[in-house]
Amino acid sequence: MRKLIGRKRRHKILRKKISGNNERPRLCITRSNKNLSGQLIDDTVSRTLFSLSTNAPDFRSKLSYGGNVKAAVLFGEEFARRAKAKGFGKVAFDRAGYRYHGRLKAFAEAARKNGLVF
């Protein structure tokens, strides 16, 4: 419970600095023990522009387990490809209070490598 409270506090501090708009949406990443999910959010109108998760059926066919670094790399590549196809090239990265290591770092590096700028 204390870990969750600390993460929520860190996310609140981070959100004061990071905001998304239509030209540069906020890329918010969320992780659980078994899955990762990402959303591109326009905070000016409070709307999700694009979202993807490791629970998606086409992603599930490639990988059975979505909670490790290998899955995070594949998820980052796929997320970047689909976001670029929708017309989003620049994003503001919101790590949601999580530390920048492990799955989160693997996702971010794979997304950058495949064309997302943040």
Task: Report on the architecture of this protein.
By secondary structure, the chain is of the alpha+beta class. It has a single domain, classed as Nucleotidyltransferase, domain 5. The chain contains four helices and four strands; from the N terminus they run αβββααβα. It has a four-stranded mixed sheet. A hairpin with a 4-residue loop joins β1 and β2 (36-42). The model has no long low-confidence stretch (mean pLDDT 93).
Shape label:
globular
Based on the coordinates given, report the CATH architecture: 2-Layer Sandwich
Q: How far apart lie the N and C ends?
A: 31 Å
Low-confidence stretches: none
Mean pLDDT: 93
Q: Please state the structural category.
A: alpha+beta
Quaternary class: single chain
Main attributes of the structure:
Nucleotidyltransferase, domain 5; single chain; 43% helix; alpha+beta; 118 residues; globular
